[in-house]
Amino acid sequence: MRLIDADKLKKHYAWLEDDRQKLFDEIVDQQPTVELPEPPKWILPEDRMPENGPVRVLVTRRTGWLDTNTGRLMRRVEIAGHEENFEWDDSGREMPEGCVVAWMPLPEPYGGE
After folding, report:
1. In a domain, 25, yes or no
2. Which of 49, 58, 88, 104 could cross-link 95 (Cys pair, CB 3.0–4.6 Å)?
3. What are phi and psi of 63, to 5 degrees?
4. pLDDT in the model for residue 43
5. Are 104 and 57 in contact (CB under 8 A)?
6. How many domains does the structure of the chain reveal?
7. For 1-31, how does the pLDDT look when each residue is reduced to its tens digit (9 = 90+)?
8. DSSP class per residue in 37-103
C-alpha cells in the first residue's frame, strides 16, 4: 500500500508543463510502498480451536444485550482460557459448551517504541 494516491496526484497535476510533469511523476513514483500487517481475524470454534492449553484468548460470547437505540444484539468480548481438556474457562469458572461464538489470539503486549 502506498501512503499517497499516486494516480490521483498525477491526474490532479496533469496541467504541469512537460518537463515539470516528468519531474513530478518521477518524485511520485519514488515514494515507498508500505506493507501493513494483516489485522487479526475472529476464528469460529467449529473451524479451529486454540492450541492445546492452557492458553488465554479473546472470545466473543453468545450472550449479550439488546441495544435499544439500534435494535442490535451487542456481544461481549472478553479474555478467556482454553484449558488442556479443551474446555473454555472464564477466570476459573467453566463456560457452558457452545457459549463461545468466535475467538482470536491475544495481541502481543506493548513493548515501547
Report:
1. yes
2. 88
3. -80, 160
4. 92
5. yes
6. 2
7. 667 788 888 888 888 888 888 898 888 888 8
8. PPPP--B-TTT--PSSSSEEEEEEEEEEEE-TTT-PEEEEEEEEEE-TTS-EEETTEEPPTT-EEEE
Provide CB contacts within 8 A for 54, sequence distance 6+. Answer: 81, 82, 83, 84, 89
Range of the domain at 24: 1-36
pTM of the model: 0.54
Angle at 89 between CA 88 and CA 91, to 5 degrees: 160
Provide the 8-state DSSP code for 17: -
Closest listed residue to residue 59, CA positions, set 98, 105, 103: 103
- CA angle 16/22/24 to nearest 5° reads 70
d(CA 24, CA 16): 9
Residue 30: inside a domain: yes
Residue 26's H or E segment, with its range, is helix 18-29
Amino acid found at 93:
R
pLDDT tens per residue across span 76-104: 777 877 776 556 666 656 666 777 888 88
